[in-house]
Amino acid sequence: MQWLGFRIQMSAEAVDIVVSTLYEAGFEGALIEDKQPLSAWEKEQMFVDISLPEEEDDGIAYVSFFLEKGEQGLLLAGDWVDAGEARRRLEEELDFLSQFGDLGELSIEERWTEDLDWVNNWKQYFHAFWVDDVYIVPSWEEPGPLRENSLLLRIDPGTAFGTGMHETTRLCIRALESLDLRGARLLDLGTGSGILSILAVKRGAERAVATDLDPCAQDALEYNCRENQIEPGGIELHLADLAQAPELAESLGRGSFTVVVANILAPVLQYLMGTAASMLAPGGYYICSGILAGQEAGVLEAMAREGIECLRQERDGEWIGLVGRKV
Predict the structure, then answer these.
(1) Which of 97, 180, 192, 272 is within CB 3.0–4.6 Å of 162 for a Cys-Cys bond?
(2) Alpha-carbon gap, residue 228 to 164, rounded angstroms
(3) How confident is the model at residue 50, as a pLDDT?
């Protein structure tokens, strides 16, 4: 499938009015590029998985719109048009907007793109890296020399969350690495790429059960298990909200897991706390992250309410990780 993209340079202040006006004119699916730092709220909503480089804000933004190519041309506001007509309509809207103030340069770049670009562009940001003694390498790179007693993980997230580059995932990796996982029974709530379950199995866990709501997690986990020489079924995946699936929770074994790990946002951690606690064996460890600094009080209260004692807090950037134990 092909798409025609129009990339418009403008002032960062003009983005909202340009996007809303062009949306009304049929130009949907805006992609915004700028150098403005993300707020804490934006980071919480986006849960960005790749650590993108940060640059000094220059007040300039680029907004791209994409029109799908069909058999009759480009579909724009219910009409089939060619590339020339689409650009004419775009320029007409921008000329109209420019009457009301300085919106910046408003220059337009035009290019065709394939679906493949959307799937693979993120790979330019993901390269082999270390989290302490864990060496995480994507499939398109060859691993470098290993350190003594280090662990190699081959991880491709695909469209599921979990490269290990995000601060929250690093916090969970370090917490798991601090435990002796030999013979452990691990429950991974919100597994994404499966990186935490795979780490546990590679470190000797006897059983790993993973849950997620995103169907993309299934392909990602299966692929990453193969890359790490884990037999099919070596990690048991359930596409379900365990809090809403009591029969599944019973069949998995309430009170039988020695470790529960959850790398999810703070409100979801609170929502799942009762379920997480019910799955833990007495003395079992609870590891969680996805908590922006300042949000930890609510998670700590939920832990205490469910009989999980907090052993320690760790911080990476703006994110908090917690390690607790069921009393």
Answers:
(1) 192
(2) 15
(3) 46
